[in-house]
Specification:
The chain is of the alpha+beta class. Helix content is 26%, strand content 41%. It has a 6-stranded mixed β-sheet with strand order 5-6-2-1-8-9. A 4-stranded antiparallel β-sheet has the order 4-3-7-10.
Length: 165
């Protein structure tokens, strides 16, 4: 009986340590809505990760989602996204509208949009959000362009990818 107990402990510890490992992931969804001639972009990050990266960058305590949220938190968040996320359509770098952010549970959602897009033959995405803060960071980008779904994973060593449609 004692052997089985130790065997159970021996097998359980690696599983517990694996589930406690923190994952560093962001998810960006990019969709071309042809009838609106718009590219809609939603980016979501874990709140504590983006807060840690911004506090390290600005040297200020942001206290996101609290009553004491820093008065410049919105400005810092938008500036960070603009600095870390770029998109090119058919080889031309695009200027997107930052529509805002929204906190939900332990995540922050960013809403971006490109307007007056007639068609897309190729798209390049550069997403270096949180790559400077976390070595293991992965930025997953899901695209739905011209009815075709594609997914890319961007990491520190490769933070930009081009896809043809």
């Amino acid at each position: 009986m004692r052997k089985y107990f130790f065997l159970l402990i021996f097998l359980t510890i690696p599983l517990i340590s694996f589930t406690l490992h923190k994952h560093y992931v962001s998810l960006t969804q990019i969709e071309f809505v042809e009838e609106k001639k718009a590219v809609q972009i939603t980016m979501r990050c874990f709140l504590d990760d983006i807060e840690e990266a911004l506090e390290s960058r600005t040297g200020e305590k942001l206290e996101l989602t609290s009553e004491n949220e820093h008065e410049k938190a919105g400005f810092y968040l938008e500036s960070y996204i603009r600095n870390k996320f770029s998109i090119w359509i058919d080889g031309e770098e695009m200027s997107y509208s930052y529509l805002g952010k929204e906190y939900e549970n332990n995540e922050v959602f960013f809403y971006l949009e490109l307007e007056n897009i007639e068609k897309i033959n190729s798209i390049s995405v550069q997403n270096s959000v949180l790559l400077e803060a976390f070595e293991e960071q992965q930025n997953i980008v899901k695209l739905k362009i011209n009815g075709i779904d594609k997914t890319i994973i961007l990491v520190k060593a490769n933070d930009k990818e081009m896809l043809k449609f």
